[in-house]
Design brief:
seven-stranded antiparallel sheet, globular, alpha+beta, single chain
Length: 137
């Protein structure tokens, strides 16, 4: 993502921010929306990610148990019709961790990937404090 704007946080329980909403912008001009919440009414621990461009859009939604992937592409764009896409089987984090212990090799995601994600999280908090979009190198 090229820029990120944190729309707002709230619902602080203890020292943890319990929800996130952001609008990242890509260097090619596409915009994404990200909404995550641990305690949003009717949506505990949900994550919704959508990426919209002039040639289509894609959306991922998960509650940590069930995930959905849908897209509006090609001829469906003008009709505003979304198609459900098949999701590949993915190992849960607990299984990946156990496999890494068994094999003695760090799996994916790696520590490097986690550090990259932390940069995005830090930029989101910086954006929230400044109430401005933050560029990410």
């Amino acid at each position: 993502m090229h820029r990120i704007l944190l729309l707002g946080t709230g619902g602080i329980a203890g020292h943890h921010v319990e929800e996130f909403a952001g609008i990242p912008g890509c260097s090619i001009g596409a915009l994404a929306t990200i909404v995550a919440s641990r305690y949003m009414t009717g949506h505990a621990n949900d994550l919704s990610l959508a990426l919209h461009g002039t040639r289509g859009a894609i959306k991922v939604e998960t509650d940590g148990k069930v995930s959905n992937l849908s897209a509006c592409l090609g001829g469906d764009v003008d009709l505003q019709r979304w198609q459900t896409l098949a999701l590949p089987s993915v190992k849960r984090n607990a299984r990946r961790f156990a496999d890494a212990l068994d094999s003695g090799r760090n799996g994916d995601p790696s520590f490097r990937r986690a550090a990259d994600m932390q940069k995005l999280i830090d930029a989101a908090f910086e954006s929230s404090a400044a109430k401005l979009p933050i560029s990410i190198a």
